[in-house]
Design goal:
The protein has 121 residues and is an alpha+beta fold. It has 4 helices and 3 strands, in the order H-E-H-H-E-E-H. Helices cover 50% and strands 12% of the residues. The longest helix has 26 residues.
Amino acid sequence: MPKKPMDGLTESMFYVLMAMCHGPKCGSEIADHIERRTNGRVQMGPATLYTILGKFENEDMIEEISVEGRKRTYKITQKGIDAYFAELTRLKQCITDAEGEIQDEKDPQACPLRPLRCGAN
């Protein structure tokens, strides 16, 4: 069954919403926030960022609140906040599940995430 649009968030989408939870921002402010928050691990180019902003705007997850020349400022909507926290909950559950795998040494099918152990007989 195909996913509905915006069923889940990519890593980049998640970080855009995270940045916007701190208040209205323009594109460069969002990109700078993400780069700082991730210590440079996630860097977002303009094409990726503005594609995400367009999708979010179409889905009413953000709204444009001002335009000054080429600078557009956006704010997150309640729908965007809800999507951010739903993804945060999903990611926390992923971590909980993975930690359970590591701790479950008694299960012979468990994968303790050591090199060559996953899927090995």
